[in-house]
C-alpha cells in the first residue's frame, strides 16, 4: 500500500521535531553535565526507578518497596508511574546500560521530551499548520521554562504525565471530527491512559479542563450532544485503563499528611501578576512566594517560551485584532483561563498553582502559531502586511521591558548579557523577515529564533531555580558500610539546608542515605521521600517530604524507645544512623554498639543477630489485656508483595500473634492453607496476624488491596473494549478498501 505524501511529511516532521529537541538537550548537557540532576531527581525519583528496575528483574510488579517504610507503597505514591507501560519500559531499558546517576536522569528526561515534541508537532499539524510552524509549537511545548526548570530536571512525574497532554489533545480532536469513522472514539484512550499513569495529578486536572473546554466548544458549534460522545467514550476508556493508578493514590492519601497540609501551602508558588513580563525577558525578577511562604526575589525562568510566541500574539492583537479574536476566540478563552488558574491559590490536595504553566505555554504556542498562519495567509493580499509586524513588535517589547527593568530594578542578576542577546535576536528576526519575505524559508524564522532564545536563556540563567543539588556518590550503589539484613532508622537534619552542594561539596549519603536513596543499594530504612506521607510510619515519626524525622521525635525514640522492649524493637529496627550534626545516641548503651563513625555520621547496631522479618510475640501494648503463645516460625520467604512462612502453633486455648517487619498498608490479606485470617496492625505501623491454636501449615501474607482488584478489573474491561474496537476498525478499513477496489474495476 502506498503511503500518502502528506503522511510521510508528518512522520518525518514529527521525528525531526523530536530530534531537534534532543539536539537542544545535548547542548545543555555539554554546557552542564549535571543539568538534569537536581533535588527530587536525586533523592527521590532516580533511586525509586532503580528499585523498580530491580523489581522487574526479580519478576515482581513494583507495587511495594521493601527498602522504605515511608515510601514503601510505590503504586500509591503515583508520581513514579508504576502503572505506566511507557515509564516502566523506559526505566527497564535505560537501566540496562552502565550509566552514571546524572546520565540516567538525562536519558529518562530526554526520552520524554522527544515524545512530547512529537505529540505537540502532530497536534499542530492536525490543525492544518505548516511543518515549520508545527516544529515551532513542538519547541515551545517541550523546551519552555517550566518543563526544563522543573519537569525535566526535578519533578519527573510532571514531565512523565505532561508528555502525553498534546497527544491526548490531538486524539480528542480526532474523536470530535465527524468526517472520521465511527471508530474514532478509540483515539483518546491510550493517550489518556499514558497521561494519567504518568504520575502527576495536576496534569490530570489539565486534561479534565481540556476535555471540558473541547466539549463546550463542540456543543456550541454543533448544538448536538452526540458530537462529543465519541470523545467522552474514548476518554472514559482511558480512565478505565488507568484505574489502578488513580485508585491507588485515592486509597493511600486517606489519613495521610497530604490531607492535613497547612493552608499556607496553597499560597506558595503562585504566578504573580508582576512576573508576566518574564514571558518577554526571562531574567525579569520580582517577589514570588516560595516553599517557605516567604516572598523573595525570583527570576521568572518558568515563563520562558522563546520570545516569539508572546510577541506574535501581542502583535496579532495590535495589527490584526479584528481578525484574530473571532478566529481564535476559543483558544484565547482557554489561554486566559489557564493563566488565571496559575495565578490563583489552590485548594484541597493540590498546591503550587504555577504547575499550570506548561499548559499555558502549550496553548500560547497554539494561539501564536494560528496568528502566524493567519498573517501568512493575508500578507500577499495586503502589501502593508509585508511589514514584519511580529518581529518589530518583539523589538519594541524587549526595549520597553528593558526600560521597565531599569526603572523598577527588576532586571535581576542575569540581565546582562541576556537582555542584549534577546534584543539581538529580535533584530535578527526582523532582518530575516525582510530578507526572506518572498522565500519559503521565511516560515522557519519563528522556530529558529525560538530555539536560539531558549538556548540563550538556559545558558545564561541556571535552570534549577535555586533548588538544592546534592553531591551523591556512585558508591551509593553499594550497601557498605551498612547491613542489608537490618532495618535502619536514620536521624538527620533538614536535607535542603544541611546537605546541599554549597554546604557539603564533598560526596555524601553513604551513611545517612537521604530521602529514598537507600533503594539504590537495597538497604531497608524507615526513612523515605514521600509527598503524600501516608498514615503509619510517616505520621508516627512526623517525617517531612524529604524523609527527615522530626529531631524531637528522633531524640525521644533513641532515648526512650530504643530498648529491648521499646517501640523500635517492636518495629524490628536493629540499626540506627545518626548524622554528625546530631549529638545523641540510642539508649540504653548496653543494647547498642557503634560499628561505624565517619565525618558524615555514626552507625549503631543492636547486639546480636538482626531481627527476624516475621516474629511471634506473646504480648503487645496495643492489646494490653491479651496474652498469646509463642509459635514456631520457619522457612520464611519475604518478597516485595508477599510473605510466606511455615507456622506451628501449640495446642491449647491461646492463639499466636505474628508481627511482620514491613510497613502496614490497607489491603493485606492472610491465609493459612485455605483458611483466611484477619489482618490488623500495630497503630498503623506494621501488620499483625492472629493465628488460632494448634494451627500448622504455610501462612501467606499478600498485599492485595480492593483498589487493585477493582482497578485491574476496570483496566481489563477497558482493554478488551479497546482491543475489539481496534480489530473491528481494521476489518472495517479493509472492507472499505476492497469495496473501492471492486467499484474501480
Write a structural description:
It is built from 24 helices and 16 strands. Helix content is 49%, strand content 11%. The strands form four sheets. The chain has a five-stranded mixed β-sheet with strand order 4-3-5-7-6, with no helix packed on it. It has a five-stranded antiparallel β-sheet with strand order 9-10-16-12-13, with no helix packed on it. The two termini are 17 Å apart. Helix 5 (101-126) packs parallel to helix 9, helix 6 (131-143) packs antiparallel against helix 15 (357-379) and helix 8 runs antiparallel to helix 10 (188-198). It is α+β, with helices and mostly antiparallel strands and 745 residues long.
Short description:
The chain is 49% helix and 11% strand. The protein is α+β, with helices and mostly antiparallel strands and 745 residues long.
Amino acid at each position: 500500500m502506498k503511503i500518502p505524501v502528506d503522511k510521510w511529511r508528518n512522520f518525518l516532521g514529527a521525528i525531526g521535531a523530536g530530534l531537534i529537541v534532543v539536539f537542544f538537550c545535548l547542548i545543555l548537557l555539554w554546557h552542564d553535565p549535571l543539568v538534569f540532576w537536581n533535588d527530587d531527581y536525586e533523592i527521590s525519583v532516580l533511586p525509586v526507578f532503580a528499585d523498580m528496575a530491580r523489581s522487574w528483574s526479580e519478576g515482581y510488579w513494583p507495587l511495594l518497596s521493601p527498602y522504605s517504610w515511608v515510601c514503601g507503597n510505590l503504586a500509591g505514591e503515583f508520581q513514579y508511574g508504576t502503572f505506566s507501560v511507557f515509564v516502566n519500559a523506559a526505566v527497564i531499558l535505560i537501566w540496562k546500560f552502565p550509566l552514571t546517576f546524572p546520565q540516567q536522569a538525562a536519558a529518562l528526561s530526554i526520552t520524554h521530551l522527544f515524545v512530547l515534541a512529537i505529540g505537540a508537532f502532530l497536534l499542530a499539524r492536525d490543525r492544518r499548520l505548516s511543518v515549520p510552524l508545527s516544529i515551532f509549537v513542538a519547541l515551545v511545548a517541550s523546551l519552555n521554562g517550566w518543563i526544563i526548570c522543573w519537569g525535566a530536571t526535578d519533578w519527573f512525574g510532571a514531565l512523565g504525565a505532561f508528555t502525553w497532554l498534546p497527544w491526548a489533545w490531538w486524539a480528542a480532536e480526532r474523536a470530535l471530527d465527524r468526517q472520521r469513522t465511527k471508530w474514532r472514539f478509540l483515539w483518546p484512550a491510550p493517550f489518556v491512559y499514558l497521561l494519567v499513569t504518568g504520575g502527576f495529578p495536576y496534569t490530570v486536572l489539565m486534561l479534565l479542563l481540556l476535555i471540558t473546554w473541547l466539549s463546550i466548544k463542540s456543543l456550541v458549534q454543533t448544538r448536538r450532544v452526540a458530537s462529543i460522545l465519541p470523545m467522552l467514550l474514548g476518554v472514559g476508556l482511558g480512565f478505565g485503563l488507568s484505574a489502578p493508578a488513580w485508585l491507588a493514590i485515592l486509597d493511600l492519601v486517606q489519613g495521610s499528611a497530604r490531607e492535613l497540609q497547612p493552608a499556607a501551602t496553597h499560597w506558595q508558588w503562585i504566578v504573580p501578576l508582576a512576573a508576566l513580563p518574564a514571558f518577554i525577558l526571562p531574567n525579569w525578577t520580582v517577589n514570588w512566594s516560595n516553599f517557605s511562604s516567604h516572598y523573595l526575589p525570583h527570576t521568572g525562568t518558568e515563563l520562558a517560551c522563546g520570545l516569539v510566541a508572546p510577541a506574535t500574539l501581542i502583535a496579532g492583537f495590535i495589527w490584526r485584532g479584528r481578525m484574530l479574536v473571532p478566529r481564535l476566540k476559543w483558544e484565547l478563552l482557554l489561554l486566559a483561563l489557564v493563566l488565571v488558574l496559575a495565578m490563583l491559590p489552590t485548594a484541597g490536595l493540590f498546591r503550587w498553582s504555577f504547575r499550570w504553566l506548561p499548559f499555558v505555554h502549550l496553548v500560547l504556542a497554539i494561539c501564536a502559531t494560528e496568528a502566524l498562519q493567519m498573517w501568512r495567509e493575508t500578507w500577499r493580499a495586503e502589501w502593508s502586511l509585508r511589514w514584519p509586524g511580529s518581529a518589530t513588535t518583539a523589538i519594541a517589547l524587549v526595549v520597553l521591558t528593558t526600560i521597565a527593568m531599569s526603572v523598577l530594578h527588576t532586571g535581576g542578576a542575569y540581565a546582562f548579557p541576556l537582555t542584549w542577546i534577546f534584543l539581538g535576536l529580535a533584530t535578527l528576526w526582523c532582518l530575516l523577515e525582510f530578507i526572506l519575505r518572498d522565500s519559503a524559508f521565511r516560515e522557519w524564522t519563528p522556530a529558529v529564533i525560538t530555539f536560539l532564545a531558549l538556548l540563550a536563556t538556559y545558558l545564561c540563567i541556571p535552570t534549577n531555580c535555586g533548588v538544592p543539588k546534592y553531591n551523591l556518590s556512585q558508591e551509593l550503589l553499594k550497601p557498605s558500610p551498612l547491613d542489608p539484613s537490618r532495618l535502619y532508622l536514620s536521624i538527620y537534619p533538614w536535607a535542603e539546608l544541611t546537605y546541599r552542594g554549597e554546604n557539603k561539596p564533598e560526596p555524601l549519603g553513604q551513611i545517612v542515605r537521604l530521602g529514598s536513596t537507600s533503594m539504590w543499594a537495597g538497604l531497608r530504612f524507615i526513612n523515605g521521600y514521600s509527598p503524600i506521607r501516608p498514615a503509619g510510619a510517616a505520621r508516627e515519626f512526623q517525617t517531612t517530604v524529604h524523609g527527615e524525622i522530626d529531631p524531637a521525635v528522633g531524640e525521644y525514640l533513641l532515648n526512650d524507645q530504643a530498648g529491648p522492649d521499646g517501640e523500635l524493637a517492636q518495629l524490628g529496627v536493629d540499626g540506627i544512623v545518626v548524622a554528625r550534626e546530631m549529638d545523641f545516641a540510642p539508649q540504653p548503651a548496653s543494647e547498642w554498639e557503634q560499628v561505624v563513625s565517619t565525618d558524615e555520621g555514626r552507625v549503631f547496631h543492636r547486639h546480636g543477630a538482626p531481627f527476624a522479618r516475621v516474629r511471634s510475640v506473646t504480648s503487645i501494648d496495643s492489646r494490653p489485656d491479651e496474652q498469646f503463645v509463642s509459635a514456631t516460625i520457619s522457612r520464611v520467604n519475604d518478597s516485595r508483595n508477599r510473605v510466606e512462612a511455615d507456622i506451628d502453633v501449640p495446642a491449647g486455648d491461646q492463639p499466636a500473634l505474628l508481627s511482620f517487619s514491613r510497613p502496614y498498608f490497607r489491603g493485606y490479606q492472610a491465609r493459612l492453607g485455605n483458611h483466611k485470617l484477619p489482618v490488623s496492625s500495630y497503630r498503623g505501623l506494621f501488620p499483625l496476624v492472629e493465628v488460632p491454636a494448634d494451627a500448622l501449615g504455610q501462612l501467606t501474607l499478600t498485599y492485595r488491596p480492593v483498589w487493585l482488584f477493582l482497578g485491574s478489573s476496570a483496566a481489563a474491561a477497558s482493554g478488551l473494549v479497546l482491543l475489539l474496537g481496534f480489530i473491528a476498525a481494521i476489518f472495517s478499513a479493509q472492507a472499505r478498501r476492497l469495496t473501492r477496489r471492486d467499484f474501480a474495476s
